[in-house]
């Protein structure tokens, strides 16, 4: 009996410490020192919140970089992958559809040059990054649609490449939101 | 595989030992109850907590008293979490208006988190309120880790003490596990994670108007505080459905490295702690060498298979490259492979890639690691499993050379061997029987996503993960049905508590035995040849028990795949 009461007291005391005080302490530090990160790395354009640096979103304009395919249609309130197994015929069908989409948008790309990351769905459905090769393959289309020079876009890719941490961990890659914001800003400046 | 890739993996493992060994020494000072400089900081807090909870820290407990307290408080916390999940819809801190869970799902979730499994039949962003994430999930992620930890410590005390029945005081141990270890480490890691991009907010989902003019609802919340203990406590239950693949849980390659380190560092440290308790560091080193070798082997098998890519895709479309289905670009294949191997070795169950979409032989590695359940293993229980297999190994070797088996100077007799065998056999039993039932019934098969042998593997993986208290999934399987909620819930409870009960019963008789000084005739357990026999024992036990199921699952799928590819060529 003593142990039951002690167990209940332990549960209440530790639920409050671990389930309320601890998250609130992290919240305090986070909101005070790193408010941008703590609130989801949201980015503003034209005084509107347009998305998060860390979360992919559906891109419908051909003049912007496309993120990786998403099994959840970029639903940032319902993340997930396709969970299709490697031998599932549905996987091959999905990849085929993605290849056709890429070919339609970028008519001159030889199929064998398409990287797998460009046509296979990400794990979260919200992968904010693409590989260098993926970005390079999209340059001609974006240049054609927007009128921006290929040279400028190549420089943009070079400048915005995210390199592996400490030169060791990860792969060179590009954040789609960062690229697209740069394009939008450039287009806006050239209009003015 | 590239040299850089291999280097990425090796560097993380080196860091694991650089952090793990000092941590093991620190854990030793916490639980050997030596006086330390930290006492001045922690003692007042702990005394205050003893008073709040009503703990008399001078009481010592035998194995029954210790076990009774452990089981009781676990049961109370299970009920508490069940109520939170059922009632979350009507409780505060629910900005996104998430309803309460159904009874079956609430039971499954409470059982999952109290057992340190963290199997999730719910999607965090749509089915768990902020209060549920904090008071239900984060809370249990601490206490279940601490429970495993103190169970292991109590067992180790039984080995090194003699002619007493005092295993220590459960309440003192579990409180110290929080104040001195889990809470400070988690707080530190959580703050680092926020700095690197993991959100920590109580504002509801962000609603944005995208560059394409659509509306996007971006789920967020108190993620960093949960993420830190999720990894450090070898829990693995994510804030979001996509777990550590979600950019808000694991935003960069650096956070990926930190999360891998966080899930392995305590398990690595605990083996050193064991060495210090035994006053035999070589024992720890022998275990390190063999376990690390197996972890690396598994990692490289995954790395090789994933980097080579899916041959069916190459065949059909002529595109080349790694298997990126269900993977994120920012981690790269090497870190993804290490994470996948580590999460099942340390029985965390966090995933940063969708295991369902791994190549067949890559998917075999996490399955095998969970079936072995001793490759470092989860918080505390991993060490318990290692000790259980050491007892079995000593017994078998004793039979082979005709000596009375003894371990760490204590005789192993019929009682201990019987109990260790129970602890060992529970694991395959609660995996294979439910898998067979699920496959034989319509309700079991209806949840399968992928056709053919892969679908079988989804079911096998689910029960293996539940029994190993891992929590990772071949997530195509729809677990949120009454059948899977209930059966998986029960499997998790049996997988956790039967082996803890058996191990405590062993501890109870071990602690009474005198320590026999080592002599010429002693079978040493701290040699590399003994380490080799130890590995052989758990591999053979694992292989014999599980091989038929693995043959139908991932091995069969691999063979089918190779057959299809060679057919198209000819």
UniProtKB/TrEMBL annotation, chain A:
Q: Where does it primarily localize?
A: membrane
Q: Where does this one sit in the cell?
A: Cell membrane
Regarding the membrane, this protein is recorded as: Single-pass membrane protein
Q: Transmembrane region positions?
A: 12-34
Q: What's the domain of life for this entry?
A: Bacteria
Q: Which GO terms describe its cellular component?
A: plasma membrane
Query: What keywords are assigned to this protein?
Result: ATP-binding, Cell membrane, Ion transport, Membrane, Nucleotide-binding, Potassium, Potassium transport, Transmembrane, Transmembrane helix, Transport
Q: What are this entry's molecular-function GO terms?
A: ATP binding; P-type potassium transmembrane transporter activity
Cite the record's note on assembly.
The system is composed of three essential subunits: KdpA, KdpB and KdpC.
Role played: Part of the high-affinity ATP-driven potassium transport (or Kdp) system, which catalyzes the hydrolysis of ATP coupled with the electrogenic transport of potassium into the cytoplasm. This subunit acts as a catalytic chaperone that increases the ATP-binding affinity of the ATP-hydrolyzing subunit KdpB by the formation of a transient KdpB/KdpC/ATP ternary complex.
The family note in this entry says: Belongs to the KdpC family.
Q: Which PANTHER family match?
A: POTASSIUM-TRANSPORTING ATPASE C CHAIN, POTASSIUM-TRANSPORTING ATPASE KDPC SUBUNIT
Protein name as annotated:
Potassium-transporting ATPase KdpC subunit
Source species of the chain:
Alicyclobacillus tolerans
Taxonomy of the source species: Bacteria, Bacillati, Bacillota, Bacilli, Bacillales
Name of the encoding gene: kdpC
TrEMBL record, chain B:
Annotated coiled-coil positions are none
Q: Name one Pfam family in it.
A: KdpA
> Principal localization?
membrane
Can the keyword Acetylation be found in this entry's annotation? no
- Listed GO CC annotations: plasma membrane
Q: Where are the transmembrane segments?
A: 6-28, 65-85, 137-160, 181-198, 252-278, 285-303, 331-351, 358-376, 382-401, 422-443, 483-507, 528-552
UniProt keyword annotations, A-Z:
Cell membrane, Ion transport, Membrane, Potassium, Potassium transport, Transmembrane, Transmembrane helix, Transport
Q: Does the keyword Electron transport apply?
A: no
Q: How does it sit in the membrane?
A: Multi-pass membrane protein
Q: Where in the cell is it found?
A: Cell membrane
Supply the NCBIfam families for this chain: kdpA
Family according to the record? Belongs to the KdpA family.
Q: What does this protein do?
A: Part of the high-affinity ATP-driven potassium transport (or Kdp) system, which catalyzes the hydrolysis of ATP coupled with the electrogenic transport of potassium into the cytoplasm. This subunit binds the extracellular potassium ions and delivers the ions to the membrane domain of KdpB through an intramembrane tunnel.
Question: Assembly and interactions?
Answer: The system is composed of three essential subunits: KdpA, KdpB and KdpC.
Instruction: Return the HAMAP family for the record.
Output: KdpA
Q: What is this protein called?
A: Potassium-transporting ATPase potassium-binding subunit
**Which species expresses this protein natively?**
Alicyclobacillus tolerans
